Amino acid sequence: MNSEDCSITENSSSHLEEGQKMGHYNCPGLYESSMSSDGRVASCSDEWVKYQKKCYFFSSTTQSWTLAQDSCSKDGATLAVIDSSKDLMFLKRYAGGAKHWIGLRNEVNETWKWPNGRTFNNWFNMTGSEKCAFLNLTDVSSADCEKNLHWICSKSSR
User: Fold this and answer.
1) CB burial of residue 19 (10 Å; 0-12, 13-18, 19+)
2) What is residue 12's DSSP assignment?
3) How far apart are CA 134 and CA 152, in angstroms?
4) What does the entry list under GO cellular component (predicted)?
5) What pLDDT was estimated at residue 32?
6) Average pLDDT by consecutive 10-residue portion of the chain (158 residues)?
7) What is the pLDDT, as a whole number, of residue 42?
8) Which helix (H) or strand (E) is 88 found in, with range?
9) How do 150-156 and 100-106 pair as beta strands?
10) What pLDDT shows up at residue 107?
11) How many CA atoms, within 13 angstroms, populate the side-chain half-sphere of residue 1?
């Protein structure tokens, strides 16, 4: 795989064969390492990935949306807040085929909100009719909040 295959575009998964996952191991040069060029440790702790100006944690275990949010809180983070199409494409590619909770939740009054209190303005397509959002390589959708899925935490890098 060459660096062209690692560029993040909306259609970049189209070259994958059925069942093949795209993730960070396929494109190691695309993601920032935890060590800077002058030898100082970068702003994201171990097991966290820096992209743009955020640190992301991709869980290896599964739990409900609420427990996942609690887990993120323990690390000073929230379930992932997605601010741009670049962030969305990065997260989908890094997550691969597994479903991962993100921070969007459908409140009682039918308004989707991020953990930071901002209302979701439908800038990306989301399917499903449940209360909690998840993403994977191909989709952003919703599921029952009690379902056990992987999750993604996000926080600002320092």
Assistant:
1) exposed
2) T
3) 9
4) plasma membrane
5) 44
6) 38 37 42 41 82 95 98 97 95 96 88 92 92 95 97 92
7) 52
8) helix 85-95
9) parallel
10) 78
11) 17
Q: At residue 103, what is the residue type? A: G
Give DSSP secondary structure letters for 15-67.
TSPTT----TTT-GGGSB-SB-TTS-B-SS-TTEEEETTEEEEE-SS-B-HHH
C-alpha 121/C-alpha 74 separation (Å) is 28
CB 17, CB 137: distance < 8 Å = no
Phi, psi torsion values for 140, nearest 5 degrees:
-120, 125
CA 111, CA 74: separation in Å to the nearest integer?
26
* β-pair partners for 48: 57
Cβ–Cβ under 8 Å, residues 18 and 41: no
The end-to-end CA distance of the chain, in Å, is 32
The span from the CA of 5 to the CA of 72, in Å, is 32
CA gap 23, 20 in Å, rounded = 10
Instruction: Tell me the sheet residues that pair with 105.
Output: 113, 132
